[in-house]
Structures are given as structure tokens and as C-alpha cells.
Amino acid sequence: MLKNYIKIAFRNLWKDKSFTLLNLLRLSVAFAAALLLGMYAFFDLSYDQFHENKEDLFQVYYSEQTPDGQELATSMPVPFAPALERELPNIKHISRYISDHALNLEEGKELDLRLIFTDPEFFEMFSFETLRGPVDVLKNDSQISITEETAQRLFGKTEVLGERLNLLVNGRNEVFTVGSILKDIPVTSGLRFDAAVNFTHSPNYAENVDRWDSRNHSVFIQLSADTTPEALTQSAVSFNNLHYQGNIEDLKRDGAQPNANGNYLELNLLPFKDIHFADFKGDYLKVSRAYPYMILGIGLLILFIAGINFVNMSIARSAQRLREIGMRKTLGAAKKQLFFQFWSESVWIFLIALLLGIGLSLALESPFRQLFNTPARLTDMSSSTLVITLLISFILITFIAGGYPALVLSKLGTLKALKGKLDLAGKNRVRNALMVVQFSIAIVLISGTLVLGKQLDYMRNKDLGFNKEQVVAIPLNGKRTNRQNVALLRNELAGKPGILSVTASDNNLGLGKDGSTYFSRMGFDYKGRGVSTNMLVVDYDYPETLGLQLKEGRTFSRSYSGDSLSIVINEAMARELQEEDPLNKQLIIDDSIKYTVVGVLKDYNFQSLNKKIEPISLFMKGDWDLYYAFVKVAPQNMAQTFESIEDAWKRIEPNAEFLGSFLDENIDRTFKRERTMTTIISSGSLIAIILSCIGLFAISMLVVTQRTKEIGVRKVVGASVAQITFLLTKDFLKLVGVAFVIAAPVAWWLLSQWLQDYEYRIELHLWIFLAAGLLAVFIALFTISFRTIRAALKNPVESLRTE
């Protein structure tokens, strides 16, 4: 019997090649899209999930109740971690963590390394596999742990235990001995590095070893199995009152209100497995996996639409097999036999489409990874749990999408089937509901494409308050000290065509090619109350090079020898000081040193656009290093000028990689997630629209088949082609209208929630959703017009003829 089912199934599929090929094409595209989107989503969801102790690992952060509300901080002072481990119970391990860069200076060959400074317990907490050497290698502060890839890059081999490494670390030459080799860091790790050394080598460690007012690193802890995060937070109250007593008193003095627990300063724990999905907004913490789930949802929606279309097309095609059904019933075929016959045909189509979809996804994997800039691979989805889940999902899809039309056909009456009548009275509600759902999905996706594209365009073109088109940012990663390189670069470029000015600072704008960014923030007392500001150490000509607008006063000038004790602030900082005229006011910052405010800049977006503009203060501190050079170029021949800058850098640092980029490129890199979301949703919209059109075409074909004689009669009594076409299309347009009424509020709510993450955002206007609805109507009309116009033009004699 099974052999007979298979034989008949393939015979029927081969007989109607166009139907079979169309279904295979549609379903294979849907499976391929779902697999690739699932690959992306599951990869994102797997970040930091490989650590064996992930359930007990946490990042420490503080919530502080200020007069302006709550502020969160993840940076900790150097003595914090040792004191916390010493004074609080139930902490199994604790480790400090700073990520930085270092240069290998061996044999004159400079290689940039991602270097982390951490404590010996780090490798006992996190599952970074040690291949050679002890796990606690960092207990010896002269040893270094490197990855396999790093060993291969530096030495050309991995058997390098005991080898010496001469590194340039924060302007200091330091020699380390290779004490262990790590397996290469998994691509799903949020902590990425090439080498690790003891935390005592971190920047300014000696100066800050006993200071609680200077914060510059993250702290991770592993709790004991018999405690909870809430218990540790509660037990840390006395710790906070002891070590932050002065801070708490200042907060009370300034009018801050305690939180719901009655605390002004509270230690909190963020689960490490949530860090990849966490976003610190300054005043609150948001942990959301909505992004990967949204991508996964789009893949499932595409499969859902493909399944709906398969159902509709199968029923539409069944008109050609009515007499076959009637004859088989006459000869004694049971409903069960007919059901399994039709269902087996569906199973084979789905199975072949799945295999074709897998092949198509493998072929498109590389372009997909490049387009979305992801290291995800289809092989990452080979875990047994995931494979079983996908297999069960495939069986359910096949059973539902293939079983429903098989059930409808097997229940047809024998006489009606022999007469060629497909009576689906009472079933139109199901069909119409499915049509409304798939067009609702299409309208939501179209609306999302329009809004995301508009928001991305808004962020790209927003006036950020500085010149981003004509300024090149260069990470200072050479052998010489950074200040030396800035001076040499300024001399090399002096008088060159197209070069307008050169400056430097200790932080970049946007995200440069080196991929690193950080912000330094400090608090101090001013007129009896606490204020805080972001700090930026700059060189001469910084505001002029960046095109920052001066509101009042002046900027730093070589004509003033005392500018090392001057400060330039932005408008937000002036408001923080609560001074009508902040010029010449003295601020006591950094070890009781007085700085005089000499200028006020207009506010500019020095952080991402999902944050409001915060206070920032510019210093000319000669004892702080500079990490980025900035070169302003003329708008003419910018490509040639960029090459001149690169040539100048190579003459100064011939062995250091040139990582220069225009600031507008740096800003655009910060929109990576928005670009990816826009591309995915627009691609999903296109696929959803195409699949919906196929389904709509199948339904129109079914309706025309059902109403063939009605069309003939209407033509005989004088109905025009336009009247018949309108008659056949109005019901479909009603469905699209219902879909719009359902989809528009849903799309508005989803998109308004998404836009809340941005401090600067577009307004949602009605025309966006109307445009999505009109586009859906146009697509529906265009799709069904082929079949309806053809039916309206058909000779009524052919429609009325009966055998």
C-alpha cells in the first residue's frame, strides 16, 4: 500500500509539473530564508552561553540615587574587588577586567594585540580552555597567557611555553614570559582577547591601588552555589555604608531621594549570560532579546505564509482532480485512503523543498554572512536539541499545511466530485482568515521597512554638532609615545595640499576601525553640591578641527601658557553647574586642582543617538595620554588627501597598521544593528509579498473556477469586462482592507515601542501606514488582475458549455 501511495504521488506530481515546480520554488525559498534567519538568530542567542558556570556568573554594577534621578555605573575602583571578596561571604571567585591594546616589539615586527588585564581567578570562572600550562598562570605577574592564533602569529608555532614577549603597554616596554596557551576564543564570546596579563599591569594601577574615587574597570563575580544575587545585594549594604560613606552623605546633602529599599547607593548584579543583551541607558538597565527573536519570528512568518499559500493552491488545484476523487470513491476508496494519498503528495513536496532549501541556504550562506556581517554558520545549528526541534517543526508544518487540503478533498461527496463541483461552502471563512493574516503580516513588515529606513536615514543625516564629513580619525597605535606621534604627524602634514588642521584626543567619535571606545566620567563638589561630567583630554585646535561651535569665551590657545589649568565645557555642563555665566568660574577637580572655565561649546552628540547629550569637559592635561589623532581635510580631492595622510603615517610608524577613517564612517558603524534590522525586515517584506502574491493568485484561480458559469451568464446578459473584473476583485480588496485595519495599529504599537530606545527619533505619521496599505492594495490588484481579466475576456460559450 505504501509503495502504491508513493508511486501515485510521484505520478500526479509529475503530471502537473507547473504546480509542482511553483510549490517547490516557493517552499524552498521559504525554507532557505527561515534557515538563514534562524542561523543568525540562534547565533545571537548563543552569546556567552558556553561557560559552564554561566548561571553563577555576574557583572557588578552600582545604582546611585542622584538629585536628578537614578544613575548606573559599571566601572569600579581598583580596591573594590579585593575588599568585596574579603568582607562579603558567598563569593566563590572575583576578577577585575580591563580591555586594551598592546604592541609586540620583538625583532622589529609590530603586531597589535587585544590585551586584557585581569586577576588569576578569571580563567577559573570563565570556560576559556587552557591547552598548555596552568589555569592560574596569572598568579605570576611576569607571565602572559596567549591564544593559539596569537602564538601562531607571533612565533609561527604553538609550542611556545617559556618564550619571551616584549610588549609596548600604555607607553611602557614590558617583558613577559608565555605561561599558558589558550584554545582560540569562541566566536560567541562577548569577552574577546589575544592575550591576558595580571591586573597589576593595568593603566595607572600603582596610583589608584588605594583610591575609591577613581573607577576604570569592570568586575565579575562567581557566587557560591548556596547563595542568590538578592542575598548578596542585601549583604552588601553595610559594605557600601563603610566604603562609600562620603558619597552617600554627599547624595543626601544634595537632595537625592533613597530608592524603594531605602538605599542611596546599591550594589547590583547583572547575570553574565544577559550581558550581550543588556543596554545601560545611564538611568536604567534594559535586558532584551527582542532583536534575535524578531529575526526568528520573521523566518517563522515566512514559513507560515508559504504554508498558507500551499493550502490555498492545493485546494485551487483540486478542481482538476474532482472526477478522479469521485471515481476512486465509487470504486470503494475510503476517506482514510484518500486522505493519506493526498497528504503523501504534500509530504513529498515539503521534503524535496526542504532539501532544496538546505542546498539554497548553503549556497547563500557566504553572501548572507557578508551582507549582515555575522560569523554565524549553518553548522552552528547542528546540536542535537536544535536538530530535533527543527525536525518536529517540519513534521508539524507538513501535517498542518499538507493535511488540511487532504482532509478537505477526502470529504468531498461522490456525486459532486463526479460532476466536477468543488463545493467549499462554509470554508470561505477559513480561507479569508488566512488571506487576512498573510496580508496583515505583509503590511506590518512593509511598515517596519519604511519606519526603520526613515529612522536610519534620520540618524545618518542628523546634525551632530561637529564636522563628520571632512575629518579623518586615526588610532595612535605606533611604537613611539602617542604625543610624539601627534607632533610628528602634524609636522609631516604641514603645508600639504588639502590638509587644514591636525589635533588629537583621548577618545574617538563614533566607532573607528580599531573597534574600541570608552568614556571617562568623574564627579566633584561645586558650591556645596555634587556634579559630574564626562572628561575629554584634547590637544590644541580640537574644537576648530572638529568644527565644534563656540557659544562664548574661547578655546585652548598656544598664546596662553596656563591653559593646562583651563577647561572648556559644553552647554549641558553649564546647566549642570547652574551658572548663568560660567566663564572664569573655578572648578576644583582631580586632587584639589583648580581649573578655570574659559569657554562654552554648543552641545554636540559625542555619544550614540540613543542617549541624550550629557555634560562634557575638555582638558589640556599633559600627564594624560592621547589615543586618536584627527585631521581636517579640504572638501576637494578628499581621496587623494586621505592617501597623503596614510603615507605620512607610514613614514612615522612603518610597522604599525594605518586604521584611519572618516568620522562619518565611524558614525555609520554605530548604526550596525539598525542597518541589519532594516535589511532583514525589508528582505522579509519582499519575500512575504512575493509569497502572498502567489497565494492570492491561487485563490483568484479558485474563485474564477467556481464562478465560471456565473461569469458566462453575466456576459450573455450584457455585463462588461470592467464590471466582471470589479465583481471578481472587490472581495479580495475587502480582505486587504480588513488586513490593513488589523495591521496598522499593531505596526504602530510595535514601531513606537522600538523608537523609544532612541533619544532622537522620527515621528510616526499616518502616511507611513497608509502607504503600506496602498502598496498592499496595488500588489493585490496587480496579482489578481491577470486571472480576473482573462476570465472576463473569455468567450461565454466556453464558460456555459457542459459535458
TrEMBL record:
Annotated ranges, domain MacB-like periplasmic core: 22-234, 440-608
Coiled coil segments of this chain: none
UniProt membrane topology term: Multi-pass membrane protein
Keyword flag Transmembrane helix: yes
Domain ABC3 transporter permease C-terminal: 298-412, 685-792
Pfam families cross-referenced by the UniProt entry: FtsX, MacB_PCD
Keywords from the UniProt entry: Cell membrane, Membrane, Transmembrane, Transmembrane helix
Principal location listed in the UniProt entry: membrane
Record's subcellular location: Cell membrane
Keyword Flavoprotein attributed: no
InterPro entries cross-referenced by the UniProt entry: ABC3_permease_C, MacB_PCD, Macrolide_Exporter_MacB
Regions that span the bilayer: 21-43, 293-317, 338-364, 384-409, 430-452, 680-704, 732-752, 764-784
PANTHER family per UniProt: ABC-TYPE MACROLIDE FAMILY EXPORT SYSTEM PERMEASE COMPONENT 2 (PTHR30572:SF18), MEMBRANE COMPONENT OF TRANSPORTER-RELATED (PTHR30572)
Protein name per Swiss-Prot or TrEMBL: ABC transporter permease
